Amino acid sequence: MTPLDIVYMIVYFIILYCSTLWFLVFFTNYRSSSRKNVAVKLPSVSIIVPAFNEEKNIRDCIESLLNLDYPRNLLKIYVVNDGSTDNTKKICEKYAKRGLIRLINQKNQGKAAAMNNALKYVKTDYVVSMDADSVAEREFLRKMVRYANKNIGIITPAPKVMKKDNWIEKIQYVEYLFSIFLRKAFSFFDSQYVAPGPGSMYKTEILKKLGGFDTNSIVEDMEIAFRFFDKGYKLDNCENAYVYTKTPKNFKDLLKQRLRWYKGYFQTVAQYSHMRLNKKFGNLGIFLLPMNYVWVILMIFITSSFLFNVVSTVINSAETIALVNNDIFPLVTRMELPSVMNLSVYSVFFAIFSALSIVTIIVSVKVSGEKIKIKDCLSYLLFILLYPIMITMFWTVGLKKHLFGDAIKW
Amino acid sequence: MVKRKINMKIYLLAAFFTMIIFFTGILLDRMLTNTKNELLINYIREIEEEQTNTQLEFLLLERAGKNNTCDLLDYEITTLGKTGEQTRIEVARYEESGKIYTKEFKDLKKKYTSLLIRNWLFFKEFKENCNSNMTIILYFYSNKYCNDCNQQGSVLTYMQRKYPSIKVISLDSDLDMNVMKLMKRLYDIKNVTKPVLIINEKKYEGLKSRSDLEKILKL
Description:
The complex is a heterodimer of chains A (410) and B (219). Chain A has 13 helices and eight strands. Chain A has helices at residues 3-33, 58-66, 88-97, 111-119, 140-145, 167-188, 204-209, 220-230, 251-271, 282-323, 329-333, 345-367, 377-403; strands spanning 45-51, 75-82, 102-106, 126-129, 134-136, 152-161, 201-203, 234-245. Chain A has an eight-stranded mixed β-sheet, with helices on both faces. In chain A, strand 2, helix 3 and strand 3 form a beta-alpha-beta unit. In chain A, helix 1 packs across helix 6, helix 6 crosses helix 13 (377-403) and helix 10 (282-323) crosses helix 13 (377-403). Chain B is built from six helices and four strands; from the N terminus they run H-H-H-E-H-E-H-E-E-H. In chain B, helix 4 links the parallel strand 1 (135-141) and strand 2 (166-172).
């Protein structure tokens, strides 16, 4: 066994360990959790929708909120027009005139400032942040408040993608389902560190006490989750409270979004570095935060070695073709079929990881309340094949941008 | 304020299950290696049987005169070449499938290499006694030190398929065998950092393309 083989085996072991851990955490808690957290009395809730140039989406968002199955006297909707230059303000004014929402206008200051601006008016027990390009299902709030109790500071929802027309959206569709599974596992493990923008619910009193959202952070939904965690509040998750959100349609937009997320992650972790390897912060401190660094290294190693193999095979084949004066006919027509001799320890682990990917997708789909469909097979396949490469790229470039201080704006 | 718990049990349980899956993988690989070794043993046995037949026919050739036996030998040599080539492909696949070699594989490869050298002697003898137009290429490669050897292997495979009269005997120069040392001394080969080809007893070093080989072989 060469040193490189040993490195590969260690990498495989770590990946297997993390996967096994998440499955164990999930399945040992999932059944017992489903009947718990039933709220006796419905709390009052405010929903804040910050909107900047959202004329195409804001109507659907407001309509979905007005359509929520929740007593009207316990629900308030605030839309913050964050200095839009399109028709967002006009559309919202129509709803405001009918007394259905409260419209707050401000100069363009960003999402965190918009949330804080509306928070000043909020007097309800809970406050929900809602992205303007998202819609909530009718039962969303009723499901969320079931998790409300005095120790819980934030309840996270289960965001899903609204459209899955092209390959970028198809990959994100499966990624979001996978995130629903993983978020629930993190929640059981008391180590959630993100409160997704569309649909997270905060205890108003605590949010105000902690000073609202950080206007300097590029990932205010992550920073606020870290702050709640740091101050000793618990984050729970309602895995079947669905919000549907619009996701980037092309790679350029996706890259822009993810660089903000991942650079933001490193920025936030640096800000809360005292949590790392600190027993006081439980599983997040001693396992998840340090493991995320290991995970980045593993992903870079695996993806770069995979890409290196692909590129060197292509180059070798091109060289061979050139060496035989482009006459590949004798090589191709009499090509031998693969045999058992082609298999190795790497093939065995490839089979194990393939099976693991399939199981993960099945579990993610089931947990998300969806069904395995033949027409979604392409989405599953794209996720298995391309997502690891994409996520490695996002983490790596995000880390680079964090280390070398490249500017990223919201 | 909540007091955060660290559930050590779940970490240990995960480690336990991971070890089960991981070592099942290693065990499956062990079983796979045994199957591959058995297959290789079968190939080697086949070559040995064919060599015994060929040897017998050479004896007949000596007694009965070449006119009666060259046709038969031609068939035998072709079969020997085909089995040798098939085994070469399987050995190459075994080597390429992963760099985790076992001692069994190394021993089998040594055995297979001595059979290849014997094949080479048969081919030479057949060519001389039966006036065959066969072209024999002795190819020394190294998996450790020669970067171009992979490409040379592909070019030689191409040449064999394009021109069936070409017989290639590929020898791994890294093998620690007396007969390999002797062969290398015979052709004055020291370190195989470049592919080494012996064609009509002449030594050629460095990567040779299809055009180079066609020129050397006058094809």
